[in-house]
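Please check this.
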Amino acid sequence: MTKWAASLIRISNHEVETLQKRLAEITERRMAAEMRVTLLDAEAEAEAKNAEGDPSAGWYMIGYREGYKRRRADMLVQIEQCQQEEAGARDALSEAFENLKKYEHVAEQAKILAAKKMNAFEAAQMDELSIRRAAVGGR
């Protein structure tokens, strides 16, 4: 394999690995935000059950529900942003994989072409050797 092909493949591999790490980080952030929404929902349910038995908790629950709705909406916005970023990262990763495969294919074709040229050169040398032997033996 030629140096330029090896360099292209190495750079492309690095790009793919970088994009895979980025995608993993985005997915981790999205999952963490989804977990926080689940925890907020569970916390709100627990607060509602605690407030059922306490008549003075009514005023408290109004403020709590407003805060809960805002925090939940913020988390849902974060999840949506992560999903959009994740889609972009997946597209970029797919393109990087395609480029890597193209470079690998070009390198493989260059390797095959070099082998064919070497075989043709060796065959020509063998033909020349046999012609020389025939010429020397025929005298």
User: Anything to note?
Assistant: Residues 3-100 form one domain. The CA atoms of residues 120 and 126 lie 10 Å apart. The first helix runs from residue 3 to 52.
